[in-house]
Every structure is written in C-alpha cells, then in structure tokens.
Specification:
Length: 280
Amino acid sequence: MLTNLKEVCKIAEKTNTAIGSFNTPNAECLFAVLDAAEKLNVPVIIAHAQIHEEVAPLDKIGRVMVALAESAKVPVCVHLDHGENLSYCKRAMDLGFTSVMIDYSALNYEENVAGTAEAVSCAHARGVDVEAELGALPQREGGGEECAVPEALYTKPELVKDFVSATGIDALAIAFGTAHGIYKKKPVLNMDIISRVRGETKLPLVMHGGSGISHEEYRKVIARGIRKINYYSYMSYDGYAAAKVTVEKKEADFYHNLALNAQNAMYEKALETMKVFSGK
C-alpha cells in the first residue's frame, strides 16, 4: 500500500527500529526489495536517485515504482533520493511520489536553508513530505573521490534547531562518518553526533551511505535515533557478483536468466538488511 515518509517513520519510532530506503533503478531491484519487505511484513521505502536518471529515466521507472507500491501488501513510501533541484523534485511529485529529498547540502548554510524552505513550501502544498541534509557525506551520491578531512563535513548539532525551524522539513539526514558507495576502509562513526542532534529535534533522523556498516553498528545508530537508513551499493554489488559468476560458469544463455540470478542475490541482501533494521 502506498504511504508517505512520515507514516513509515512513525512506525519506526514506535518500535525503535529503522526503515530501509533502497534505491531501485531497475525492475530487478524493485522486485528484490518489495519481495523481501513482504516476506518480513515490514514497511519499506523504494527510492529513485536523480543520479540514476541515465540508468532509469524518472518518467519511466517512477510510474512503475508508484504502481508496485500501491499493490504491495506492506506500507511502501515512494521517495526521490538526492533531488538536486526543485524542478526534478516536482517531476517526482507529479508522478505520485509521496516524499522527496532536496539536497542542497553542498551549498553554504544560508543557501541550503533558503532552497530547502522553498522546496518544503511546494511539496507540502501537494501533500508530499520532504527530507533535507545538514552536513554532507565525504563522497557524493554514486561514490567518487573521498574528502581529505571528512570530519569537516559532519553535521553541526548547534545548527539543527534553526535549520528545522527555518525549513519546516519532515526528516533530517545527518553526516557522522558514513559515505556513499563501496568503502575502501572501515568507516568510523561518530555516534555522539546522533545523540546531540536527537537532543535538538524529534524529527526522524536519516543515515545516508548505509551500505557496508556492520550489524552491530546498525543496531547502535538505531538505538540512538536513526529512523531511516539508505541502502543500495552493497545490494547492487551482490547482484553484479551473482551475474558475473553466472556468465563465468556459462550457466545462462539468455539475459532474463542472468537478471533473475542477480535479482535473487539482491533479494537475499535486502532480506538480511531489513531483518537487522527491523530487529527481526
């Protein structure tokens, strides 16, 4: 059933769990994630990142995402991840997305506030929830070069109360040591930032760069107040690895068999991850 970001985060807050938000740029990702959520009977967020526009145009994949969410047996939020401008966010809203992330975190604080507030005004008028980011991850969405001093990008808790008040957002993404993409070394998470931000706002807190974190670390960040965890890279890599093995062993002569093996591998990773997030 189609629902919004605030509703799934309410469930997470009530149960002291986190909702997995999975980028789903193709049918195999969508089927894997939704099948896993229905298997466990847990809410889920399926997301489209603007950086995947060339992989899966929003106007095409977005319609499929909304249709599958509407027919799902569990609550499903359809979310735009890392919308880089308001016009792209509006396109997602027009398609029926129930929440959008406007990402102005690379701008200075004042510009982030102003742009986010504009997006919130537009989205709320349409009944759409908004996530924004304060601080920034060392790597931008999709990976890339690491920042020399990632701590410089961490969320400043002392800005949180003003940011939330000035923008009117519904969820806040914070930076405390994670990064997008595949980790080249073990991340060191600053758990104190989560607790300090939690002391400044009761909004749902979001962790980006959620792939590659240990199960124990997931449990720690959830206990401190993280209610939405973005996850994609390691699930996608498992799909790639399964497809690669299939090719190397010459076990499939048709693409659909290759794709199914990749889907099954991503399903297993999504299932494992959702179990940790939901405490099952």
